[in-house]
Amino acid sequence: MQLGHDLRVIADFLSQCFHMPIFGRSKDLEYRNAARLLNEGKVGEAVDALRIIIEKNPEHVNAYVTLAVALMEVQEKPTKDSVETVEAFALLDTAAVMDPKNPIPHFNMGVMQRNLGLLEESLISFEKALEREKRQPLAIANMAEVNYELERWEEAVRLAKLALIRDPGLESAMGWVRVAMRKAGMLDHDGNVIERPE
Fold this sequence. Notes:
The protein is mainly alpha-helical. The protein has two domains: 103 residues, Alpha Horseshoe (Serine Threonine Protein Phosphatase 5, Tetratricopeptide repeat), CATH 1.25.40; 64 residues, no CATH class. Helices cover 66% and strands 0% of the residues. The protein contains ten helices and no strands. The longest helix is centred in the N-terminal third of the chain and has 16 residues. It is elongated.
């Protein structure tokens, strides 16, 4: 008996009738294949596939975000004025408007801005991501690192601590924290924490 197969056929049929999945996650194979291409480093193919997805479904927020990421990756040395970068920013702006509660377009905007050296702008984008989803340890970690790059030692340490509280697995990526603590006057010459009166 093929009961499992028959139920899947019925569910797929009903999904097509109502244009939505009946149970579980959407089986968006085209998008998953495009994302796989990007992960495999086949960036040009991923860009083409994502453009087709957006043409077919102009409301596909994830495709906009992923295409923006792919457009940055396709560039050997991205600049803020390149055609690909300008398009990537426009795609993320569109995704943010289409899904205003979604933190991902803002997070990716922050990453792009940071990679382009637009550090102050990246902090604003990461903050917007956190306004939509407060428990984003990667956004907080990026903000900590940007503050470190801007030599704002105390803010960098404060944000690093917050990121580590949210995700202790980030510790290995934060080797710079002791340097920031020393520069902020939080560590003595032997590496001991200096107690400060509250």
